[in-house]
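Below is a filled-in request sheet from our internal design queue. Each sheet records the structural input a requester submitted and the sequence that came back. We keep these sheets so that new team members can see what a complete request looks like end to end.

REQUESTER: design group, bay 2
PRIORITY: normal
MODE: inverse folding
CHAIN LENGTH: 119
BACKBONE (tokenized):
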């Protein structure tokens, strides 16, 4: 059974940094996209950053230049380095692993990790 486990959330002041990490088990990642979504209560879950199976990267416009996504297929990890954090980055962050060609039917989520940006 595929497991997706996140870590690294917490409380940080505006302008600070955090790194979120996600490790996946029981899966070969060659054809999988890996990345992060976030959700604020009462709002839809939105894409933050995604590393596609071809290693191209996608970022939400709101995080470009501040967040950096990296993946390591051998270690089965994907990490999100978040710099210059703003209050609007406060959300629950979810790691997502999905098959590149069947993303709707083969998609796995972590349990979520809270990121709070506040002074």
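RETURNED SEQUENCE:
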């Amino acid at each position: 059974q595929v497991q997706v486990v996140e870590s690294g959330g917490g409380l940080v002041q505006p302008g600070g940094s955090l790194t979120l990490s996600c490790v996946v088990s029981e899966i070969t990642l060659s054809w999988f996209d890996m990345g992060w979504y976030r959700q604020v209560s009462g709002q839809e879950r939105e894409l933050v950053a995604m590393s596609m199976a071809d290693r191209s990267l996608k970022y939400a416009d709101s995080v470009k230049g501040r967040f950096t996504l990296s993946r390591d297929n051998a270690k089965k990890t994907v990490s999100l380095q978040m710099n210059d954090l703003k209050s609007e980055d406060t959300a629950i962050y979810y790691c997502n692993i999905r098959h590149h060609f069947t993303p709707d039917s083969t998609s796995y989520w972590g349990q979520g990790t809270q990121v709070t940006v506040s002074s």
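SHEET NOTES:
- The two ends are 40 Å apart (CA to CA).
- The CA atoms of residues 94 and 112 lie 4 Å apart.
FILED BY: M.R.
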